[in-house]
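Our platform keeps sequence and structure together, in a single record for each protein. This encoding replaces a full spatial description with a residue-level series of whole-number codes. We quote a single record here, exactly as it is kept in our systems:
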Amino acid sequence: MKQAHDNPEIADSHLTESSGQAPLAPIIPVRVMDAVERACFATDLTSGLQERYSSVQTYVLLKNAEDVIEQALLICKDKATGQAEKDSKVFNAEITTRRSVEYGYEDSVLERLESEIVVLKKKADERRKMLRALTSEVADTVTGEILRPAKLTKDGLAIIVKLPK
């Protein structure tokens, strides 16, 4: 399969913007920072981008950068895990290794319990939907239970970014 780094146009395209301008400041800090410094770095990064781009464009660029970082982490994680020394420090960040295990189960009781969880989650979702549809308290004619409408606890907009595949 052909990789992006096999194509010089794609491999070098990250070095310049589509407009041909020089790249923005790097988004990967060259040292490990504490929480306050990371927050300041994030604020400065966002402010710098918003000087050139709208908030929506900035958000899309940062979501794209997030995807790039996630892919880069996946690429190097296994090798880094193999090289990491237990309870050490790298760039002033504490490194701890631990055994990672997974189990497979062939147990009919566990399978039944997991199926019941799926059914119960579906029933809970249906109940939530019904309670959201109520506009006032009503009595269940079968059980006599007083059903109260759901209370809106948060109302806002969400932004979803679908990066090109």
